[in-house]
Each structure stands twice: as structure tokens, then as C-alpha cells.
Amino acid sequence: MTVMIDGRQTAAKIRSELAKKAEVLKNQGITPCLAVILVGDDPASQVYVRNKKRAAEKIGIETKDLHLSAQTAQSELLELIDSLNDDPSVHAILVQMPLPKHLDENEVINAISPKKDADGLHPKNLGHLFMNEPQALPCTPRGIMVLLAEYDIGVAGKNVVIIGRSNLVGRPLAAMMINVDATVTVAHSKTKNLPEIAKNADILVVATGRAEMVDQSYVKKGATVIDVGINRLPDNHLVGDVDQASVTGVAAYLTPVPGGVGPMTIAMLMQQTLELAEKSK
Ligand SMILES: Nc1nc2c(c(=O)[nH]1)N[C@@H](CN(C=O)c1ccc(C(=O)N[C@@H](CCC(=O)O)C(=O)O)cc1)CN2
Ligand SMILES: [Mg+2]
Fold first, then answer.
1. What residue spans in the chain does CATH classification 3.40.50.720 cover?
2. For 210-233, what is each residue's pLDDT tens digit?
3. What is the ipTM of this complex?
4. Per-residue confidence (pLDDT) for residue 121, from 0 to 100
5. Residue 152, by phi and psi: left (phi above 0), alpha (psi -120 to 50) or beta?
6. Please, what's the b/e burial string for 117-144 (b: 16 or more CB within 10 A of its CB; e: otherwise)?
7. Looking at the chain, which residues constitute the CATH 3.40.50.10860 domain(s)?
8. Is 165 annotated as a binding residue?
9. Which CATH class is domain 139-261?
10. pLDDT exceeds 90 at position 281
11. How far apart are CA 44 and CA 42, in angstroms?
12. Which residue from 11, 155, 159, 240 has the highest number of Cβ atoms inside 10 Å of its Cβ?
């Protein structure tokens, strides 16, 4: 039997706790505020930004909506970030990724004050994570750790295989897993014998960006499978990086797409915004 991990329900529970925290902050004279920067008109990014703003509103977090044209120059974006860094009414800043190709994402992330780093992607915050003294954390991997805890899936001493080495997911997740005593393998597109390596995992995290790539030949019986992928098929339906039908019955736990990791990313962004607002006191 495979238990489907309900990210929607877990995220909703977290959001209702966060609404109470936001109320407490407001009573202390702090209105938490998240600045959301979107450059260009990528349809998926527009949906994510809209969902983030909606979630913030419901919790009682103010948002500053900064939508820039796809032709925005790097210098203009950096100036905007500078002004938000200096604005005491803004507690958290996020730049929706990916940015248009002409922009340098690393330089942009580096420009955000680490104290207002809603996504936990600034090199200083990643450094804190690597030293196991976490400050702001990347939202998707943090959401995965919370989901595992919610379902009492132990991590210490487990073999964790992460397929994908992005700065957004794979690399920070590896650090988080090491910090709680997992044995971690990070695999990627150049990894040899990938199914064999994946089959060694007690917890398999798939963030390849390739629709339904991972089937049951990658999964050990009884493993936990976390699907980070979001792929829209030509018929408009959404699938993950895991072939869910193939893995069902083999995995003990599986995150669905949609409704698994995605909603947790947004809940963690809200949590981090409140934490940054709290620390600004
Ligand atoms: N600055 C950032 N950019 C990006 C991040 C990020 O964490 N910070 N992650 C992804 C996109 N993303 C948030 O930005 C994100 C993606 C998907 C979901 C989500 O809730 N997905 C739903 C399905 C939504 C749909 O119907 O399309 C689900 O999985 O159930 C939330 C956040 C890249 N960029
Ligand atoms: Mg670029």
C-alpha cells in the first residue's frame, strides 16, 4: 500500500497557525510585508506569484507587487532591490525565478539583504545552512523536511538519494538532510547507473524537471518518494517527475503532483516572511 502525502492539508494547517502569528505581530505594531518581484510575463511564474500574494493576504501579510517588463536591465533590478533593502516597512523580498535570460540570477540573489531573504537563497544564508546554524532557508527543501516530519518519516541514518543538484532544491536539501544525520547521495544528469543508485534510497527525492522520468525501476519497495517536479503536458494536465501510477504499490509514501510539495513551498515562504518580520523587531 502507498500512503499519499497530503501537502495541501499540511500547508493549510501551517497557514492557519501563521495567521495567528501574524495577528500577534500586528498587535505589537508590526505589519509583516513581503515584496514580490516578477520580471517578464512567464505564465507559470504569474500563477505562482498570484498564489503567493493570495496566501499572504489570507494570513494577514501585506504584499508589495513589483511587476517589471521582460526588458528590464540588470542595473534597474538591482536598484529596485536596493531600495527595498532600505525600506523599513518591507520585511522580506522575493524575486520570482526564472529570470529572463539576459539577467544574472546569482547577482540578483546576492543583492537581496540576507535579513530580508524570503527564499533563503542568499549565499550568506546558504553558508549558515551548510554550517548547520540555519537562518533563512530555501522554501521547497524546507517544505520537504516539514512534510517528512508531519508523516513521522525518520531521516537519521537513512539513505537519501536526491536526483537534481539545483541551488533551489537539490543542493540545499542535501545540506538539510546531512544536518539531521541522513546519508546523502546527490545524483544528476551525468550520474551513471541512476536507477541502481536510486533503488538504494530509503527516501528518494526527484527534482529532474523531466516529466514522469522516474518509474518503479528506480524505487526500492517500501521507500518514500518525494516528487518535486511540476510539468504541464500539452493537454494542460500537470504531472511530476515521477510516474505516479508505476510507483504506486511499490513506495510506502509518495507525494502527489499537484498537491504535494508545491503547496508547502508557498506555506514555507509565508512562514519565513513572518520569521523575518519577527527578527526585524
Ligand atoms: N523565487 C522563487 N522562484 C521559484 C521557486 C521558489 O521557491 N522561489 N520555486 C518554483 C516555483 N514555485 C514558487 O515560486 C512554486 C511552484 C509550484 C507551486 C505549487 O503550489 N504547485 C501546485 C500546482 C500549481 C499549478 O496548478 O500550476 C502543486 O504542486 O500542487 C508553488 C510554488 C520556481 N521558481
Ligand atoms: Mg541568466
1. 139-261
2. 999 999 999 999 999 999 999 999
3. 0.97
4. 98
5. left
6. bbbbbbeebbebbeeeebbbbbbbbbbb
7. 29-113
8. yes
9. alpha beta
10. no
11. 6
12. 240
Q: How confident is the model at residue 118 (pLDDT cuts 50, 70, 90)?
A: very high
> Please, what is the end-to-end C-alpha distance for the chain in angstroms?
48
Do the annotations mark residue 40 as ligand-binding? Answer: no
Q: How far is the CA of 265 from the centre of ligand 1 (A)?
A: 7
User: Strand pairing partners for 35?
Assistant: 64, 93
Query: What pLDDT, on a 0 to 100 scale, did the predictor assign at position 210?
Result: 97
Q: Catalytic positions, please?
A: 52, 96, 119
pTM for the full predicted model:
0.98
Atom of ligand 1 nearest to the CA of 97: 3
| Distance of alpha carbon 145 from alpha carbon 14, whole angstroms | 14
- Determine contact, residues 230/7, Cβ cutoff 8 Å: no
What is the percent of the chain with per-residue pLDDT over 90, rounded to a whole number? Answer: 100
- List, as one string, the DSSP characters of 239-254: E-SB-HHHHBTTBSEE
CATH superfamily ID and name for 29-113:
Leucine Dehydrogenase, chain A, domain 1 (3.40.50.10860)
Q: Is the CB of 224 under 6 A from ligand 1?
A: no
Q: Angle at the Cα of 260 (from 175 to 190), degrees rounded to 5?
A: 50
Q: What's the CA-to-centroid distance between 108 and ligand 2, angstroms?
A: 10
